[in-house]
Amino acid sequence: MKCIAIDDEPKALKVIEALCSKTDLADLVKTFRAPLEALSWLQNNEVDLVFLDINMPELSGYDLITTLNKKPQIIMTTAYSSFAVDSYLYDVTDYLLKPIELKRFLLAIHKANDRIKHLSLVKNTEKESVLYVKEGTIIHKISLDQLTYVESSGNYVIYHLLDRDIKIRQTLKDLLLDLPPKQFFRVHKSFVVSIDRIDIIEPHQLQINRRNVPIGSKYKSDFLQLMRRIREKK
Question: Can you list the domains of the chain with their CATH numbers?
Answer without folding.
Answer: 2-127 (3.40.50.2300), 130-233 (2.40.50.1020)
